Description:
Radius of gyration: 20 Å
Strand order of the largest sheet: 1-2
Structural class: mainly alpha
Largest sheet: 2 strands, antiparallel
Number of helices: 8
Amino acid sequence: MTPKPDMSLVSTLASQLNIDLTLLFHEVFWALGEERINKVTPSYEQFRAWTRQRDGLNQFWTFANTRLSGELAAEDVRDIWECIDLTLNARKRHAFSFQDYLIVAVRAEAVCEYCGKGPPEVRLDIDHVLPVSRGGSNTPLNLRFLCEHHNRSRGNRFRWADVWRRAV
C-alpha cells in the first residue's frame, strides 16, 4: 500500500524553498503527463504504419491502454497521438533572418520576458514560445527573448500562460 503524501509537509517544504505551491503542482502534473506520453510512444515505424491505416488511432488506443494497464479517455488519446506525431516529426530549426531578429528585439525591448533582466546583467537567447519540437515556427510572433537561465530551465515545455501573457 502506497502511503498518502502529507500535504502539509509538501506545503511547508515548498514555502521554505520559496516555491509557489500551485506552480509546483502544475509542474508535477506536466511531468507525469510527459511520462505517460513516453510510456505509450511506439516505435517510429509502428506509429507511421498506424498513421497510414484507417483505424490506426483505434489500434494506437488499444496499444496505449495495454501499456498503461487502464483506459484512456478518447480526448486523452487524441492529445497523446498529436504529441507523439509532433515529436516523431520534430521540425528542424532554421536560421533567423536579420529582420526576424529586429522584430523580436523591438517588441521584447531586449529583456527576458520572465525576469525582466537585460544585458549586460544577463545574456539573452531567442526562445520559441511554442517549441519547434512541438510544432512551433520561426515566425517573429513565436519568438521572444529569455535569459540563458530561463531558456535552459524551460526545455521544450509549452505553457499556455506564455500565450495569454502575450495576448494581453
